[in-house]
Design brief:
about 300 residues; alpha/beta; 7-stranded mixed β-sheet
């Protein structure tokens, strides 16, 4: 039964979402919890299946095990698991966005590209590049772009594979200092971005260090984007909705104003709630979306994004 449901789900993902992204989460001898979609003629129903397997498993901690702060090493171990197998096609676009069809994902990410003012020939840097899915969507449609990024997990192997035919330099490095990145690359990128990354840092001091490292990679006149930041003012709501987020770093918006005054290269700081960044009435025919890809506005309300000009 489990095999049939898995096959059905795989067919649905490929057939309707055209997904071909080889990312798998593995954890030996753990419980595989998966929502499978079984499609029959004229009937669709969701079936929740729980089974144990020693070969292919999805690491999903229970709510109880999530309710504690994790160390950087524990997060690295988790993302190393994500990058350890490349045989099952599971769309992992970013934290929480794995249900979005690729075409809609590219559309909403293009909104960030427009705000950043990305142009042909730009140099784009991503801290916490992971498997490169966000940077791929962000740079899509532009020619002669040079890409760079860093991550501590072995997801960088997938990013290198994704960008192997492009002008790209990807490093295994801690984003808090980017110590493994050659000095010659400092201040050479037109835009520096990070998406759904800062919640995995241990402290506000680490967040400031990571943001400063991004500024250091950006050339004068460039722009910076830090997306999907968990809002301190919405922590209670977030933890009720997403139990595992209790271990995340929540940053008040005032943190960024303080940080920007301490880094003299940062100018024109703007903070935008995710619901305003992603769900624009005009872009959706004047109707206004209460949800995107099944994501309700309540999820948008718990996170925000940061833009800044760099001197």
């Amino acid at each position: 039964v489990y095999s049939a449901l898995s096959i059905s789900n795989t067919i649905c993902v490929h057939k309707f979402f055209h997904v071909d992204d080889p990312v798998l989460v593995q954890n030996t001898n753990a419980v595989f919890a998966h929502m499978s979609l079984a499609v029959w003629p004229g009937l669709a129903m969701y079936i929740y299946t729980v089974t144990t397997t020693s070969q292919i498993q999805f690491k999903r901690a229970s709510a109880d095990s999530c309710r504690r702060n994790k160390t950087v090493d524990e997060y690295k171990e988790y993302f190393d698991h994500l990058g350890s197998m490349q045989t099952l096609h599971i769309p992992i676009f970013a934290s929480g966005y794995n249900q979005m069809p690729p075409q809609e994902w590219k559309h909403v990410v293009s909104r960030i590209g427009r705000r950043l003012g990305i142009r042909n020939g730009d140099y784009l840097w991503e801290s916490g590049i992971g498997a490169g899915v966000f940077l791929a969507a962000l740079s899509s449609g532009f020619s002669n772009v040079t890409l760079g990024g860093a991550d501590t997990s072995n997801l960088v192997n997938l990013a290198r594979e994704r960008f192997k035919d492009e002008r790209t330099a990807i490093y295994v490095s801690d984003i808090r200092n980017l110590s493994a990145v050659p000095h010659r690359l400092l201040a050479t990128f037109d835009k520096a971005v990070a998406f759904s990354v800062f919640q995995y840092l241990p402290s506000t001091e680490d967040a400031a260090s990571a943001a400063n490292a991004m500024v250091a990679m950006t050339k004068p006149g460039g722009r910076l984007f830090i997306g999907n930041v968990y809002d301190q003012s919405s922590k209670n709501v977030s933890e009720n909705l997403l139990p595992c987020s209790s271990g995340h770093l929540y940053l008040p918006k005032s943190f960024w104003h303080t940080w920007s005054t301490q880094n003299r290269r940062v100018q024109k700081l703007s903070i935008i709630q995710d619901r305003d960044l992603w769900a624009d009435r005009e872009e959706w025919g004047g109707v206004g979306r209460s949800d995107l890809w099944g994501y309700s506005n309540i999820f948008f309300s718990i996170r925000y994004s940061v833009f800044a000009d760099i001197l």
